[in-house]
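Appendix B. Raw example, untouched.
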Amino acid sequence: MATPLNLPIGVQAFSKIRTGGFYYVDKTPYLHQLIDEGSYYFLSRPRRFGKSLLLDTLETEAALLGHFDVDEIATEALLFQTGYLTVHKVEQPMTGYWLYTLGYPNREVEASLNQALLPALGMPRAAQQRISLFRALQAHDLPALETHFKALFAGLPHDWYRNNPIAQYEGHYASVFYSHLAALGLAITVEDAGNTGRVDMTVDFNGHIYLFEFKVVEQVPEGRALQQLQDKGYADKHRGQGKPIHLIGVEFSREQQQIIAFDVLSV
């Protein structure tokens, strides 16, 4: 008689679930439905048209989470029901009205979801590109990091930009950065809040902290990305950690469909 498996209640480590005698159901095939039916999967409510990139902090109602019509199911409901999102917080802001905050169960799930979506985001060689990205970060080689992302954007399909209004906004470009970095399972915080505002993305890896600010030059003057990082003092909240901090201002051109500035200042 086969040994019964345990439910992985409270177990956050993917490796422990797979090797510790717990039930595990691979729901990756459901991702094909997401990939085939749309282009953008960053569902949290943005401040400026798509700038919030994580599925973390997604707020929804109970009716959506309990919707089972596959032909009409919302993307966030599908992700919840297949285990890619879980409930992080439950609130009752007024009597009888319940609000649920969803997020990734753990970093392994976040990484696996982004790995599965990268080919649909125009990255057919996603595995090789992730290795290249990891090597650059591991060596703290910022020129190589710049070269890597420029090559990445150079390979994105032209149809992404043609008749696509979202390509006018920084969130469109930042989403490529986020998915590519998140697929490595890195510690990433988007719209990292401090007392002077929110930096677009913070990456904490291998003893270094990288603060990214993204701008589109058709909307703001060139040089504003790095300048905002300095003027707002976004590095201040991280200084107590004793790690080197690197401000990285990334500027995109809608017309050139490419990164035109990758300004770095280590503080």
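End of appendix B.
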